[in-house]
Amino acid sequence: MVRMEVVSVSAKLSKREAILLEKLTREYGFISKSEAIRSAVRLYLNLLELRPKDRLRMLQLINEMIAPGTKTSSELIDEVHREDDSS
Amino acid sequence: MRLYLEPSVLVKLFKKEDHSTKMIDLIATVDDEKDWFACTSRWSLLEITRALRKDRKPKELIELDLKELTRHRITFLDVTRPIITESERLVASRDLYASDALHTATYASARKPRKLEAMLSDDTHFRRLGTVIKIITLEEAQLP
Predict the structure, then answer these.
(1) Residue of A nearest to B12 (CA)
(2) For A74, which of B8, B47, B61 is closest by C-beta distance?
(3) Is the confidence at residue A84, as pLDDT, over 80?
(4) Deepest of A64, A82, B90, B109, by most Cβ within 10 A of its Cβ?
(5) Measured distance CA(B13)–CA(B10) in Å, rounded
(6) What predicted TM-score, i.e. pTM, was given to this entire model?
């Protein structure tokens, strides 16, 4: 029998995050909130372990999915520069 | 190729837009090819942070994006006192934004020691500096 060594990690969540975790644990059929978090951590670690180019591609996609902006990079940087100049 | 990366091309790494895939390819080339070199000012990290914030990216994603940037073979050049002094001179004499002056001064100070060939910028940014420093766009950059 192979004994897997495990460590416990605790984390504080905001009320909103805790409610969302509860909801998604139910919706996705995880056996517990711990299992849902373990799964999320594994996915995150897999992302960070990708080859550099693949990691950049995935991260670009995640940025675009989570917060698709309407302005171009050039427009955003230009706005940042104008902020410096606005006084 | 040895390049100074202006922040607007670095923000492209985290957005889907014209030439953003080429920018990823360029960073991969810098990571893999010995004769390629890329640098930028450490100040760029602040500008990128603000641009991503303006683009309404959540804090955790911005932090991840910034950590990702530092995992590649990009050299972040310190903002030194001589660079600030040269930036002041540029702002006063050429009516530039402070940030543009800082990147121009950083590029100028690193050009010889780091053997830089050009500043990589997008097609609208830094055009007005074309006479002072050599600018190339992502469209013009030739990858191996």
Answers:
(1) A73
(2) B8
(3) no
(4) B90
(5) 6
(6) 0.88
